Amino acid sequence: MKPHVLVIDDEQAICASLNFALEDDYQVTTTTDPEKGLLLLEQKQIDIVLLDLSLGTRSGLDVLQEIKQIDPSVTVIMMTAYATIESSIKAIKSGAYYYIEKPINMEELELLIMRASEFKRMSSEIETLHEELGQRRGFHNFLGKSKAMERVFSMIERIKNIDSSVLITGESGTGKELVARSIHNTGKRINGPLVVVNCAAIPENLLESELFGYEKGAFTGATQRKEGKWVAANGGTLFLDEISEMPLALQVKLLRVLQERELTPIGSNKKISLDVRIIGATNKNLEQMVSEGTFREDLYFRLNVIPLSVPPLRERSEDLPLLIDHFLQKYCREMDMGKKFLSPDARRLLLEYRYPGNVRELGNIIEYSVALSMNDEITVLDLPTYVQENRPAFSTTRQMDSGGSLQIPIGIPMKEIEKKVIAATLNHFSRHRQKTAQTLQISERSLRDKIKLYAIEDQQKKV
Fold first, then answer.
1. Rounded Cα gap, residues 371 and 323, in angstroms
2. What is the C-alpha to C-alpha distance for residues 293 and 75, in angstroms, rounded to an integer?
3. Helix 344-352 and helix 320-334, axial crossing angle in degrees, nearest 10
4. How far apart are CA 40 and CA 55, in angstroms?
5. How many other C-beta atoms lie within 10 A of the C-beta of residue 150?
6. 353 pLDDT exceeds 90?
7. Which helix (H) or strand (E) holds 317?
8. Would the CA dihedral through 99, 101, 104, 106 be positive or negative?
9. 164, exposed or middle or buried, with CB in 10 Å at 0-12, 13-18, 19+?
10. HSE (CB half, 13 Å, CA atoms) of 242?
11. How far apart are the first and last CA of the chain?
12. Contact 420, 175 (CB under 8 A)
């Protein structure tokens, strides 16, 4: 994409000549009205401004200061017919990149713009690197001024330098992994590794070997020694995401490692000492799982030394404007789309929507809208249909009403109820397991296990 140059000069002839000279290599917009120029800066992605020092009744230096207030990153080159050392120094001190005298030498101007473009590109890269470093070393990915988020920030500050286990709870999409990364990246273990394990994403038969490692020849297919995630995290932090999906048999081994602070890889007799902080995360009610016998009580208490709850987006609605603008800038920059803005009606719909998928869903909605909008203004029609209709993308009630009702007799055992609901939901979605799991708010692994437990595949025609 060509760099966008905005020319602000009160002489129409100069605007026209600069447009003619630069249009082959740059996207050029010109105006003789400084107020219109400032408005363009608010609405479009401008890279370089060619600004006249004298704009009729207005001073170019005053306009320069307003430009920098709107967008500090824009590169401004001052143009003047009466260059003096004093005016040049004032321009540079006010934030101008450089100045050029009139009548303008086009070769000199083109060289200056080329250097200014390179300067802006390098500045942008440096800023991006600073942001990435900040994200690694802090919790700057968390945007919010709400009381709910202030409590999360305060908790991170208090626990970052201790080694006690942390259990992060919260709905899907609230940012539980970001909390874990912030605890690690702001604490004393920052120079150690942060190893992330999604307990639901790794097949059950591989999870043990992934966590504990194994020796060569320990089992069929173990053609070489492999270091487990525990050992890889030594000196740092092991983040066990979706800890509720860990099989009961493996929970016993995890508890033993937490108690003894050492492990023995599969097929080995050698014990390895560990210095690892454990952070677990789940969107399930572990206390209920303990009472149901699907999660070990002793492991729950080992993990839940420091509980940390991440609030859903609907409980921090005052953060929505900040998050919307953050994602809008983020995806415009990533897609090289220039500056886009939301129409008042589109912004209103985004502020009214409830976000059952929380911050992750908000980010997806903004990414979708930025990608599909054809103009600088994102309108209501650019938003996903379900946002326009102010309904969740996946609505259990909506889906089950379409011939999907299920009658449950009074007194039927809970296990039988669970079996019937899973079977009916599977049938409703034509055996589509991902949609079934999302509707029932369980992982696909849990769904597979329950299908096997209740032999639902064989029962589907009887339900």
1. 18
2. 63
3. 120
4. 17
5. 12
6. yes
7. none
8. negative
9. exposed
10. 18
11. 58
12. no
Give 423-432 pLDDT, tens digit per residue.
888 887 778 8
Is the Cβ–Cβ distance between 274 and 262 less than 8 Å? yes
Q: Which residue has the higher pLDDT, 133 or 231?
A: 231
> Is the bond preceding 103 in cis, omega lying within 30 degrees of 0?
yes
The residues with which 237 forms a beta bridge, in sequence order, are 194, 277
SS3 80: strand
Structure tokens at 205: 């038969």
pLDDT tens digit sequence for 244-289: 999 998 999 999 999 999 988 888 888 888 999 999 999 999 999 9
Q: Which helix (H) or strand (E) holds 166?
A: strand 166-169
The owner of tokens 């454990």 is: 278
CA dist., res. 54 & res. 390, Å (int): 51
Contact 144, 281 (CB under 8 A): no
Q: Letter for the amino acid at 40?
A: L
Give the total residue count for the chain: 463
Whether the model pTM is above 0.70: no
